[in-house]
Write a structure and sequence with these properties.
Blueprint (H helix, E strand, L loop, with lengths): L2 E6 L7 H8 L5 E4 L8 E5 L2 E5 L12 E4 L4 E2 L1 H13 L7 E4 L3 E2 L2 H11 L20 H10 L14 H19 L9 H15 L3 E2 L1 H10 L4 E4 L26 H5 L6 E9 L2 E3 L12 H10 L11 E3 L1 E2 H10 L4 E5 L9 E10 L2 E3 L6 H5 L2 E8 L16 H14 L3 E5 L7 E3 L2 H7 L2
Parallel strand pairs: 1-10, 1-11, 2-5, 2-10, 5-7, 6-8, 7-9, 11-15, 14-16, 15-19
Antiparallel strand pairs: 3-4, 12-13, 16-17, 16-18, 19-20
The chain binds guanosine-5'-diphosphate, 6-O-phosphoryl inosine monophosphate and magnesium ion.
The site of 6-O-phosphoryl inosine monophosphate has 24 residues, from helix 4.
């Protein structure tokens, strides 16, 4: 199993970080391949909690190389903060390499994100709302990458032309900000930005290199490589709930281009799901429970954003959406997280289809306005009303919890290989034979 990818199948925060950390011991290299500091991946080891934004969740295993590949957009001061925070806690970071092809998030991207995020999007007036971005400059940075003329790649910061590059871009950006007239405070100072970013570049230099060459060599040498997705497939720029998405391919579709590996190399894809649904920011969410049930899930699951602290919107599991993203991402097995959060509920609902304009629909709609009109058709399953955070073996789970897991697997059409009942590494059960042999109980 040389290439394994962990990808979120909902709207992010499925606990990908926990799974990647757990699996890491079996791999020689862990790769973050898209997104940027909009991601917040949590790893809990005993009484220690690590919140990672750019750095791969394999960083806690010292003998593993952690790569940030070309598809990621990086904010230098944020990654330096992450590196410093880890070093302070005695986590070694000398095994971290950042691709010189990755793109740099600059102060204007964050200013643009603020300005643009104030705008409403959506097709019809009543469905207009904000995207509700993380304000980390992600969309504007990816836009400049695709536009090319205003982009800065990591490797550019070490070239003699860097100063002129910054001056040229700042001149145009200042004109744009002036014409937008949105934020009077935005007047960029090219000399100050050049000084500041040259300083960051110097400090990050030991970590910058050609991750693509390293990965292609590793593939030739048959090394085991783990790819860590950020966000979730429903936030994918091409395949998610557009325009309420992020600006990268966060479904399984993003791994090959983002990491720089051939598609056929990744031969196992693990789809991470919560036992319910959450979403941060705007956009349609058919199974949302803006009521006591939603609040119950938010409280029990501590559903507040890792990156922004925003309360996450909570609702029932949506099997229409996850069946779509599991098929789209070529998922082999599911890792079902947060099962413990549902423990107190007498009944649990699962959305098995939608009704849109009076018709039953089993395919995930391509337009957000259609999804917004979707009324979930629910199946109600009995809860188990018993804490399961200490359960160590699948056969010791309450019967109704097992029935719930099996029903989700059946509806999504993929086997469940992992069940998680708490944030800690040890609160994990492996059903998949191969994984159980390597990690488990
Ligand atoms: P990611 O972005 O997909 O890595 O997920 P986040 O780290 O943003 O959010 C997942 C949260 O759930 C973190 O606070 C984890 O520590 C926590 N967590 C992970 N697995 C479980 C679980 O099985 N049960 C509970 N209750 N919490 C979990
Ligand atoms: P992880 O990797 C949850 C959401 C934002 C917003 C939309 C666009 O921790 O699962 P952006 O800043 O990317 O332009 O925001 O995407 N979003 C996430 N939601 N988890 C994430 O990452 C997210 N990254 C972005 O809330 O709705
Ligand atoms: Mg997160």
């Amino acid at each position: 199993m040389p290439g394994t990818c962990v990808v979120g199948l909902q709207w992010g925060d499925e606990a990908k970080g926990k799974l990647v950390d757990l699996l890491t011991s079996d791999f020689e290299i862990v790769v973050r391949y898209q997104g940027g500091a909009n991601a917040g991946h949590t790893v809990v080891v005993g009484d220690q909690t690590y919140k990672l934004h750019h750095i791969p969740s394999g960083i806690l295993s010292h003998n593993v190389k952690n790569l940030i590949s070309p598809g990621v957009v990086l904010n230098p001061p944020t990654i330096l903060d992450e590196i410093d925070a880890l070093a302070k806690r005695n986590v070694k970071v000398d095994n971290l390499m950042i691709s010189d092809r990755s793109h740099v998030v600059l102060p204007w991207h964050i200013a643009e994100d603020r300005l643009l995020n104030a705008a409403k999007v959506g097709g019809v007036a009543e469905s207009s709302e904000n995207i509700g971005t993380t304000l980390r400059g992600i969309g504007p940075c990816y836009r400049d990458k695709v536009g090319r003329t205003m982009a800065v790649r990591f490797g550019d910061m070490y070239r003699p032309e860097f100063k002129q590059q910054i001056e040229r871009i700042v001149e145009s950006k200042n004109q744009v900000f002036q014409s937008l007239n949105g934020d009077a405070n935005v007047a960029l100072d090219a000399a100050a930005i050049f000084e500041e970013y040259s300083g960051y570049a110097e400090r990050l230099k030991p970590h910058v290199g050609d991750t693509t060459a390293l990965l292609l060599d590793a593939i030739d040498e048959d090394k085991n490589i783990l790819f860590e997705g950020a966000q979730g497939a429903l936030l994918d720029i091409d395949h998610g709930t557009f325009p309420f998405v992020t600006s990268s391919n966060s479904s399984g579709a993003g791994v090959f281009s983002g990491a720089g590996v051939p598609a056929r190399f990744v031969n196992r894809i693990i789809g991470v799901i919560k036992a319910y649904s959450t979403r941060v920011g705007g956009g349609p969410f058919p199974t949302e429970q803006d009521n006591d049930d939603g609040q119950h899930i938010r409280d029990r699951g501590n559903e507040y954003g890792t990156t922004t602290g925003r309360p996450r919107r909570c609702g029932w599991f949506d099997a229409v959406a996850v069946r779509y993203t599991a098929r789209l991402s070529g998922v082999d097995m599911l890792s079902l997280m947060m099962l413990d959060v549902l423990a107190a509920l007498p009944e649990i609902k699962v959305c098995v289809a939608y009704e849109i304009d009076g018709k039953r629909v089993e395919h995930f709609p391509s337009h957000s306005d259609d999804l917004r009109r979707a009324v979930p058709i629910y199946e109600t399953l009995p809860g188990w009303q018993q804490e399961i955070t200490e359960v160590e073996r699948v056969e010791d789970l309450p019967e109704n919890a097992i029935k719930y897991v099996n029903r989700i697997s059946e509806l999504v059409g993929r086997p469940v290989g992992v069940i998680s009942v708490g944030p800690d590494r040890r609160q994990t059960m492996f059903l998949d034979k191969d994984l159980a042999q390597r990690f488990g109980n």
